[in-house]
Design brief:
146 residues, mainly alpha
Length: 146
C-alpha cells in the first residue's frame, strides 16, 4: 500500500506572525555592535545637546542598532516638535538655550518617575523605558571604554 504524499506547500511565514522568530544575520549583529561602539565613543548622554542626541540617534538607526520608532523617540522628544509638549514638558531651559548640553539620562529617569506617578498608559511607560535603556547602554559602553 502506497502512502499518499501531500504536495501542498506550506505558506511562507508572514512578518508579524508570533510563530516567526526573527534571527538577525551574523553580519547585522556585528554591524549593530560597531554602531553602538562608534556612537558610544563620542557620546556622553550626561552632557549632550538635543541636536547631538538626534544625530547620534540617527547613526544608531542607520547602523541597525535601534528601530525607527526608537530613533523617533530620541529625535522628536519634547522640545523638538514631537507633539508631547503638553504631557511632558521639555527639559528646563530647552527652549531658551537649545544648544546647551544637558544630562538626558537624568531627564528621562525623571520623566519615567513622573509618568509612573501620574499613572501614564503602559505604552508610554514602555517607550520611555526604551529610551532609558538606549541611553543607559550608551553610557555603559562609554564608561567601560575609559
Amino acid at each position: 500500500m502506497r502512502h499518499s504524499t501531500n504536495t501542498a506547500q506550506r505558506p511562507s511565514p508572514v512578518a508579524g506572525d508570533p510563530d516567526v522568530r526573527a534571527r538577525p544575520a551574523r553580519s547585522n549583529v556585528k554591524a549593530s555592535y560597531r554602531a553602538w561602539s562608534r556612537v558610544a565613543a563620542k557620546t556622553n548622554v550626561r552632557r549632550i545637546t538635543l541636536a547631538d542626541l538626534a544625530a547620534r540617534s540617527r547613526e544608531l538607526y542607520e547602523g541597525g542598532a535601534i528601530t525607527l520608532e526608537d530613533h523617533a523617540l530620541l529625535s522628536l522628544m519634547p522640545g523638538r516638535g514631537g507633539g508631547d509638549e503638553r504631557r511632558v514638558p521639555p527639559p528646563i531651559g530647552i527652549r531658551s538655550a537649545p544648544d546647551r548640553p544637558r544630562d538626558f539620562l537624568l531627564y528621562w529617569q525623571h520623566q519615567l518617575a513622573v509618568q509612573k506617578g501620574g499613572y501614564a498608559p503602559a505604552e508610554q511607560l514602555e517607550r520611555t523605558q526604551r529610551v532609558l535603556d538606549i541611553l543607559n547602554y550608551l553610557e555603559s559602553l562609554r564608561t567601560a571604554a575609559t
